[in-house]
Amino acid sequence: MSSYFTDLAQQYIDGEWRPGTGSWDIIDFNPYDNEKLASITIATAGEVDAAYRAAERAQKQWAGTNPYTRRAVFEKALRLVEEREAEIGDAIVAELGGTRLKAAFELRLAKEFLREAVHLALRPEGRIVPSPVDGRENRVYRVPVGVVGVISPFNFPFLLTLKSVAPALALGNGVVLKPHQNTPVVGGTLVAKILEDAGLPAGLLNVVVTDIAEIGDAFIEHPVPKVISFTGSDRVGRHVATVCAAHFKRSILELGGSSALVVLDDADVDYAVDAAVFSRFVHQGQACMAADRVLVDRAVADEFTGKFVARVKTLKAGDPRDPSTLIGPVINSSQADAVSAVVEQALAEGATALVRGSVTDNLVEPTVLTGLAADSALLKQEVFGPVAFLVPFDGEEEAVRLVNDTPYGLSGAVHTGNIERGVDFAKQVDTGMFHVNDGTVHDEPVVPLGGERHSGLGRLNGDTMLDAFTTQKWISVQHGRSGFPF
User: What does pTM read for this prediction?
Assistant: First the structure.
C-alpha cells in the first residue's frame, strides 16, 4: 500500500501538514475490498477561514513574481509526476477503484494539463486601446482574480483537481482546494505534496478535507475567493451557482451529462461498437461525458446490437489491481444502490435486459437495456454507472430530436461514413462538445471544454483559463490635460 495514505491523511494549510480539529473523521476506504486506507479528522469552518486567509496573504507576492519563475514550478511538478507515476497509479487504483487502464488514461491527461500550465503562466497579455479623448492612453491589464476555491470530484480526481488548481496558480492566484470526501488523497493532498515538492511557496495552495455537514456553505460563502471552480453533479452545481451569485462571485461549473453516441445508417459498425463500449463503460460509467444512451439507426440496429452485446459480455469485472480487469467497483455502496435502482426501474417500465450484470458489494457488472419508452425519464437523466440504453431511431431528424431530449448538454458523438454529414449533425445538437467518428469521452488542454443547459457554466482549457481565473483592469493615462465641464 502506498505511503501516501499514511503520510498525506492530513489538512494542508499555510504550508503546514496538520490534523483537522472537527468533531469526526472521514474514513477513506478502498471501494473494491473496503480496506481502510486512512482516517482524516475533518476541517472546521475556522480552518477553512485560515486556509483562505493564508492564500490571500501569499497570493499578493506570488502575483508579482516573474511568470518565468512561476512557470518553473510547474515544469518541476511535471517531472515529479513522471517520476512518481507508478505510485500515483497505485493510489488511483486503491482510492477510487480505477482499473490500471483508467489510471494510465488519467495520468496521461494529467501530464498534458501540467504541460499546458507551464505555458499558461506566460500567456496573459495587456493591450493598448484607442481613446476618443486626445492625449489619453488606455491600458488594459490581464490580472489574477486573487484567490480561487476549487471543489473537485471523485471520478477523475487527480486530473480534474490539477485541471483547475494548476492553471489558477500559474496565472498568479492563490487556491484553496476541497477534494471529494471519497478521494481526499488522490484528489487533494497528493496534489499539494507534488506542488510543495516542486517549490510552490507556502500558503498558495491549501487543502481542506471536510464535509458540508461540518462547514455548511462556508467554503463558497467566504469573502476571500472571487471564483469557485466546481466539478460535480448538476444538483450540487445549482446550489453552488446560487450561493456564488448571492455573494457576487464567479462560478465555473463542470457538471453532469446524459450524452448520446449516435450510429447513422452509413457508419462503420465495428468501429462504432468499439467507440460505444469505451464511451459507456470507461471507469465503470462514472464519467460525466460517458455515453448513457447509444442511439442506432434501425437500418443497422440488429448488426450493431449483436456485436455490442457480444463485446460487453467480454468485459472483465473484478479486482482493479489486475491489469486484465476492465470494470472495477463504483465508488461506494450508495452509488451501487443507485445504479441497481435504475436497472430495476427500467425493467419495471418494460425494458429488456440484453445483458444483466450482477452486483456484489460495490462491484457492478455491465448491463445493457433496450425497449424503454421514448418518454422515459431514465433516458433524460445521468446514470453514473455501467448501464447502457440502446435506442433505435428512424432517420437523422429523429436522432437529433432524441439526442436533444434531455436537460443536459455536455458531450456526444456521431458515427457516419460521411464526415461532413457528421459535422452537420453535430451542429444541430445542443451540447458544448460533440465528436464525429469517435467516442464521447475526450479532454484536451487547449480546446474549450464545458457544457450547455444543466451541464454547466463557463469553459475550461486553453485560453478559456484566462477568462476563468483572471480579470481585466482598465488603467487610463492622460498625457495632456483633460477639459472638465465644471
Answer: 0.94
